[in-house]
Amino acid sequence: MGKLLLSLFLLLLPLTAAADVSGKWSGSMDIKAPDGTVQSTPVTAEFKQDGKTVTGTAGREGDDQLTIENGLLDGGTLTFDVEAPDGKYSVSLKLVGDKMEGETTFSDPNGNKLTAKLSFERAK
Fold first, then answer.
1. Phi and psi for 81 in degrees, rounded to 5?
2. pTM confidence score
3. Residue 66 within any structural domain of the chain
4. pLDDT for 9
5. Of 35, 37, 61, 75, which sees the most CB atoms within 10 A?
6. Measured in Å, how far apart are the chain's first and last C-alpha atoms?
7. The total number of structural domains that make up the chain
8. CB contact set of 51 (below 8 Å; sequence gap of 6+)
């Protein structure tokens, strides 16, 4: 019985360990055009985590990084918003080890929306 409980504890340990996204991340944003072609843009982010609250910056690689707003890591899902000069990005990423994947929805002031896939890897 003791070995069974120990085995169960060891199996559940990775699920209960607190995830931490603090640090530098790099990846890509893949936008699918109406004609089906995909445009990939390099992106970077730097996160600072305090409990479930996440702050930091994100943006296209080489561009000025924009401030993250409403950052929250909950149950392995990181969500945040970024206000850009031409609109707002709402981001949702699923954390798996040193990788995150998900999507962003961009909304411009005219109400137009565009969704893109995002993927990040923790910088070494």
1. -120, 155
2. 0.81
3. yes
4. 45
5. 61
6. 42
7. 1
8. none
CB atoms within 10 A of CB 100: 24
44 domain-assigned: yes
Q: Is residue 45 part of a domain?
A: yes
Q: Give strand pairing partners of 43.
A: 27, 60
Containing structural domain, residue 112:
20-122
On whether the CB atoms of residues 87 and 69 are closer than 8 A, the answer is no
Residue 99 lies in a domain: yes
**Token couple for 51:** 């409990």
CATH of the domain at 111: 2.40.160.90
More confident residue, 49 or 64: 49
Distances (CA, A) of 110 to 1, 22, 88, 113: 63, 34, 11, 9
The whole-angstrom separation of Cα 4 and Cα 1 is 5
